[in-house]
Structure formats: C-alpha cells, structure tokens
Amino acid sequence: MEKTLRGACIIGQSGGPTAVINASAYGVIRTALDAECITKVYGAAHGIKGVLNDRLYIMDEEDPYELELLKNTPSSELGSVRYKIADPDKDDKDFKRILEIFKKYDVRYFFYNGGNDSMDTCEKISRYLDRIGYECRVIGVPKTIDNDLYGTDHCPGFGSAAKYIATSCMEVSKDARVYDTGMITVIEIMGRHAGWLAGSAALASFCGSGPDLIYLPEVDFDYEKFCSEVADLYKKQGNVLIAVSEGIHDANGKFISEYGSSLAKEKDAFGHSQLGGLAVQLADELKRRTGAKVRGIELSLLQRCGAHLASKTDLDEAVLAGKAAVEAAVAGETGKMVAFERKTVNGNYSCETKLLPLKSVANLEKKVPLEWIAKSGNNVTQEFIDYALPLIQGQPERVYENSLPRYARLKKVLAK
Amino acid sequence: MEKTLRGACIIGQSGGPTAVINASAYGVIRTALDAECITKVYGAAHGIKGVLNDRLYIMDEEDPYELELLKNTPSSELGSVRYKIADPDKDDKDFKRILEIFKKYDVRYFFYNGGNDSMDTCEKISRYLDRIGYECRVIGVPKTIDNDLYGTDHCPGFGSAAKYIATSCMEVSKDARVYDTGMITVIEIMGRHAGWLAGSAALASFCGSGPDLIYLPEVDFDYEKFCSEVADLYKKQGNVLIAVSEGIHDANGKFISEYGSSLAKEKDAFGHSQLGGLAVQLADELKRRTGAKVRGIELSLLQRCGAHLASKTDLDEAVLAGKAAVEAAVAGETGKMVAFERKTVNGNYSCETKLLPLKSVANLEKKVPLEWIAKSGNNVTQEFIDYALPLIQGQPERVYENSLPRYARLKKVLAK
Predict the structure, then answer these.
(1) How far is CA A186 from CA A201, B124, B165, in A?
(2) Which parts of A177-222 fold into alpha helices (H)?
(3) Taking a contact as any Cβ pair under 8 Å apart, which residues of chain B between 12 and 71 contact chain A?
(4) A291 phi, psi to nearest 5 deg
(5) Do A184 and A317 fall into the same domain?
C-alpha cells in the first residue's frame, strides 16, 4: 500500500480559457479540501507564473458556496498564463525557484490544468522534482476547447465550445436565410491545427439548420475549388452558409488567413498587415467573384467562454477530471495526466477516467481522423456526429442574479 | 357596438429578424385561428413581397405544436423583406395588386410585424384601403432589437438582444482579463442611430463583469478623446474592455466605421473599400497608439438571433403584442400599432399594451435620452440600467432535441 503523503497542494490554470476550466478547478479544490492528507489548498495566480512569483491564493479561506459557483463561471478564475518553461536538464533556474516555493509552503501535490504545452510544463516539473528527490505528486488535468490532446477520447472544454458553435450556427443559419435576395455567410471557428471545433458546426446541420459547407485544417484548402463550390451552391439555392476553421491552409502549409483577399493582397504589396479576420476576407473574395451580398462572422472569444451554453456532460466531466486527479495523487500516482475513456453501456454513452504518463501526451496533437471527413473535403461524416453529439448533451443548472449569470466571487487571499 | 367583420387574415414579417419576432407571429396566428370571425389565417412569404407575389402560406394547415415552437425559433420563419413601398397618393401600382390579392382571399385583417419602415408600409396600406373603401383592419405589431420605435416604452426583440449582449459581455470580460500581460478588447454592437443595444452592455458591468467604457451614437465620437481615455485606463489597470455602437460618428455626422484605422485610410487613398468592421479598426488603431495586445469582436448577427438567450419577459410580451393586435382588430380597430406602456405595480415592473395611430409612429426614431448617458460620454447612468434591467428578466422554457434547440418545422402549404 502506498504511504500517505501529507502536505499542501497547488492548483494552477494555464493556456486559453474554456467555459468549464473552472469546473475542473472546482473538482481539484473541493476534493483537495476534503482530503485529510492535504493540509492546505493554494491556487496559483496565473498558473506557473504564480508559483515563480510567490503569488498563491489560499483556497481554504474561500466561502464554499462561492467555490461551487466556479462551475457557473467561464474563463480561468485564478488567471492563466502562456509561459514556456525551459528543459530542466538544460536550464534549471525556474525549477530551483519552484522548489523553493514548494518547500516554503510544504507543497506535496501539484495539479496543472491545461493543454499540450501545460502538460509539457507539468512533465518537466515532475521530472525535475523526481530527479532531485523532492517528494511531490504531479498530476495534469486536461483542458482545451481544441480537443487535440493525445491519448484521451476527448478534452474537457470541447463539448461546451462545440455546443456553443452548433447553437450559434443554427441561429445564424436561420437569420442568414431570412431574405429571398441571396446571401453568402462565412463563419470562422477556432482551431489552428485540428478541425474538431469547425466540424462541430455539422451538429447544427444534423439538427436541421446549419452550414452547407465546412472546411477543416486536416484537408489542404484549395482556394479555387472552394470558390467554385460556394458559387455553384449560391446559384442553386441562393443562400449559402459556410463554416471554416481559422487554421485552413494551402498545400504548402500556408495559412489562408495570411493570403487575404485580392484587396488585402494589393495592400500587402505596400507592406501593411491586413485588417479583418479570415471570415471577412473569404466573404470579401466571394463577393468579388459572385456579386452576392456577403457577411463574415468570427465567433472569436465567445466560443470558448460561452459558459451559458455549457454542456452538462462536459461540465460534469470537467469536475470529474479534477476530482480524479486529486484522488490519483492521494493514492500515490505522479507524473500522469487524467484522460477520458469512452464506454458504451447499454448503447448509451458513458465516460471513465484513466491515467496516462505525462511524457506520452506532452506536445502531441490529435487531429480529426481523415476518414471522418467527407470525401468532398467540405464536410464531416456521420462518424464525426456520432463522436461529438454525446459530448454536448444536457443543460447544467445555472445560477442567475438579475437573470444574468452569477459568477464566483473569490476573496483571493494571498499566502505569505 | 362594432359590427363583426368576417374574413381571412394575413400576417407578414418585415425588416431585420429578432430572437422573438416569431413569438409575435405565434401570438397573431394562434389568436386569429381561435377568433370566430377570422375565416382563414395566411402567412405572407417574405412580408409584403409575399402578398405582391401571391405567395401565402396557409397557417390553418400547420400542426398546433409546431406553431407553438415558433416561440423557440429565432429569425423570421415566414421570411422577411426590405421593400420600400411607394406613397399610394403618388403611385398606386403595388396597392392595386395588394387589393387584388386581398379580394382573391377575402382578406379583411392585415397584421404587419416590423420596425419603423414596416409601420410606414402598414400605414400606407391602411390609408389606401380606407380611401378606396375596401373594409380591412390593419394593425402593426412592433419589432426591433434597436428599440427605437416611437411611442412605445420598448419594443419586442430588444430585451432578448440586450440579454444576449449583456451575457456575452460578461463572458468576454472574464476571458479578456485572464492573462496579466494586458489586453484591450473592443466589442462592436448593433444600433446604427440609437444606442439602446450598446448601452445594454452596461448591464454586464452592473452585474460585476463588463465593459469599462461604452460609446453610444447619441454622443458625437471624439477619436482623440477616445484614444486617450482607453490609453489612460490601460496604463492604470492593464486590461480594458470597450463596447461601441456600430453607429458612432463624429461631430460632422460621419460614421467612424467609414474612417477606418490609419492603415485603412491609406488604403482608401487607392480607392478600395476597407476590410473588417469597426471593432477591428478601432482595436488596430489602439494597438498602434498603445502597443497593447488588442482584439476586436463584432457581435454581428448573433446578437439579434440569439434565441437561446431570449428574455422570458421579452418573449411573453412579443406573444402579447401579437395577441393584442388581433384582439384590437376583431374589436374594430384599424390603422393602429400595438405599443407598450410600463406600469409599476407594488414596486414591480409590469407592462400593458395600448394602441397608437400608425401615422404617429411611422418613420420616427426614439433615441437614448441624453440624461441617461454619463457626463463623461463613455457610459450610461443608473436610469438606463433601471429602464433596461426589467426587460431581460426570466429564462423562457426551451424545447431541445439532442440538447440543441428544436425549432418549428412548418409545412408552409401555399394557398392557390
């Protein structure tokens, strides 16, 4: 049996925020507060930067009700960070500082909630502490709307973003088809390298009202083919709705967002960077070619912070991931990331946690399988729908004040 | 007592769609189907164009449950139109055609759901039919997210759009302040001439997490003042969130969206129209001046079709407006628009309908009172909050399928 390890814990949030990353923080904090061997629970202000800068919030001081409201609160309430930590074998300056802080607060548990890069940070800290013989259990908690983490069936954050995207596409589809005078609408969706989010727009069409064409970064984007596909459909049905991933690129790997439209290209000749996003540029080019009325819509930050449209499944699983991380650490695990395994029980979706070595997930990217992309290259297949649909199910209970969301109000008392 | 008028009715939807315009259609259709003197209920395909083109859907053929789902369905389900009808005293071609169709289907009730321009259409039809002595009762049903209709306390559609804007601003506010590296975010909100929608962003700040600065079109926009206000705040607090109405303009009445940023201005010199919206342009200029990381977000169509965030108050009132229109017409009224009167009962908000002559509302615009705008010109006052807050209250019951909205699926059987 694993010996009990007594000491404090730190939870840090890292990378782009999501609608449910605070739900994972809640899972970690609540479980850690309830764990007998965990003597104190600290939240790092802005992830690893909070450790390096000795800025730790004492979670034990928070009102339990406010902590519970973290499930209602989008974005990273403790603050996030994008900080690439060195390899401890080459430069251990940051790690020495981390050790100093860990010793100061007797930190024996470290939970880091993030995507690929954060798992890399997590792995390096784990490796360093192990090497110098400081006993500390390090567990990664997955998070990313991009759903591109390796080794896990899906990631907390994806289901809610997918639900936001699908719902918004349904609504825009209704709006953009309201006149009989014709219109081409381009919706730009996040996902620089993987098309999970753009593909989720297909859930809207599956439910009766969504994009006609969807372009993912897994397939090289052919500008001429795209324009003729849209023009044909415009001629045929008058209204066309298109969803594109921000990460679509040509066969040479050049992002289409860097092309600009023909106008932007002319401007580029004067050495200026272009204005407007991909959606506006594609819409502009389609207007030039078809004469249609066009509109470019970028879902922007809204898609990753749309907590009011969170999936209950996603939110519950986000809490579960945090809880599982603490339970695993208390049980003696370290150097692992919590991952999800999909089970089908009596034909119904269910999800269990498992542990993966941090080393096996850090810095890898999981893309949409090519066989889940339609042969036409402009849509996803039923397999994609079957994969994504269970992840957006259910409406979580929401707490309102004045009929607007009531977010957690933490005291954030700094440890000294 | 008014004599009973037997005959068919037509309901048409016009202008920009909203989250609850179909709820008003439901109010009209359901009440008309239940009214003994109304022999048939037609929905005009694309508003007045559907009348001119003899494209009328038979609402009696629809499944009652699907009709009820109109309350769950954003945008104009019958199709909308932007068509400026002539003055019947100058050119009666369209009106002769309308009369022909009205006679063909024995139409004695005409309900038109829209904003300023639609009330103008409504008034002209009413005037023409009255002049030539064809008995038909014409009632306008108000609708506009812009909330700029004259003579009514507020308009159906505004409360839901305001709620979408406030909720989205709360979420973006959480997201945009997540890093400690500083960011300036500009959110562009609809409203070409009136700042009701942009002002609604203040509801987010009132609830604890929203824009720092809000600019309405009621106040001349001073570009230099704006830039220095933002720069000062950025220096002070690192993160700044700004909401601007798309309609902000300088003292000469020129829209700021036509300025472009300094880059766009250079491009204009080559005679090209600019790319990107106001938010991107302002963000770009703020980046140039402050060196900050910036992001421009346009809420675009999402704010007017965001039915999933509809206000229950707004939705109920939208149904009420449709119902009141039919009841008034059946009771003998014509040439009127349904309007709202705000009552305070035991300190609580309540709303009653009244009737206004179409002539008194057509083509007029109601703006935000200057005394509801902060002296600084970059925010609204508590009076604005007190006005808007009751209108966003309550979450309507929503119907889901696969956890996504279940919209009405109408048969749309064409009358012959």
Answers:
(1) 12, 37, 21
(2) 196-206
(3) 17, 45-46, 49
(4) 75, 0
(5) no
DSSP B51-115: HHTT-EEEGGGS-HHHHHGGGG--S-TT------PPPTTT--HHHHHHHHHHHHTTEEEEEEEES
What H or E segment, with its residue span, contains residue B143? none
Interface of B with A in 68-97 (CB under 8 A): 73-77, 79-82
**What is the distance between the alpha carbons of residues B112 and B47, in angstroms, rounded to a whole number?**
8
Residues B326 and B299 in one domain: no
CB-nearest partner of B171 from A178, A275, A307? A307
> How far is residue B178's CA from residue A351's CA, in Å, rounded to a whole number?
30
Is the residue at B103 inside a domain? yes
Tell me the shortest Cα–Cα distance from B151 to chain A, in angstroms: 27
- DSSP H or E segment with residue B322: helix B312-330
- Residue after which a domain boundary falls, among A261, A282, A305: A305
pLDDT (tens, 9 = 90+) of chain A, 416 residues, equals 567 999 999 999 999 999 999 999 999 999 999 999 999 999 999 999 999 999 999 999 999 999 999 999 999 999 999 999 999 999 999 999 999 999 999 999 999 999 988 999 999 999 999 999 999 999 999 999 999 999 999 999 999 999 999 999 999 999 999 999 999 999 999 999 999 999 999 999 999 899 999 999 999 999 999 999 999 999 999 999 999 999 999 999 999 998 865 444 444 333 434 445 899 999 999 999 999 999 999 999 999 999 999 999 999 999 999 999 999 999 999 999 999 999 998 989 999 999 999 999 877 889 999 999 999 999 999 999 999 999 999 999 999 999 999 999 999 999 99
Q: Do A179 and B80 touch (CB under 8 A)?
A: yes
Cα(A253)–Cα(A240) distance, integer angstroms: 27
> With contacts defined as CB-CB under 8 Å, which chain B residues touch A76?
178
ipTM over 0.90: yes
- Interface residue B284 vs chain A (CB under 8 A): yes
**Which residue in the set B49, B185, B308 is minimally distant from A167, CB to CB?**
B308
Interface membership of A176 toward B (CB under 8 Å) = yes
Residue of A120, A146, A284, A314 marked active site: A146
Least CB-CB distance to B284: which of A185, A275, A394? A275
The answer to whether A157 and A309 have CB atoms below 8 angstroms apart is no
Query: What 8-state DSSP symbol labels residue B366?
Result: P
Q: What's the structural domain count of chain B?
A: 2
Instruction: Give the DSSP letter of residue A193.
Output: S
Contacts of B176 in chain A (CB under 8 A): 301
Stated pTM of the model:
0.96
Q: State the DSSP H helix or E strand holding residue A62, giving kind and residue range, or none if neither.
A: none
Full domain range(s) for residue A339: 7-156+309-363+393-405
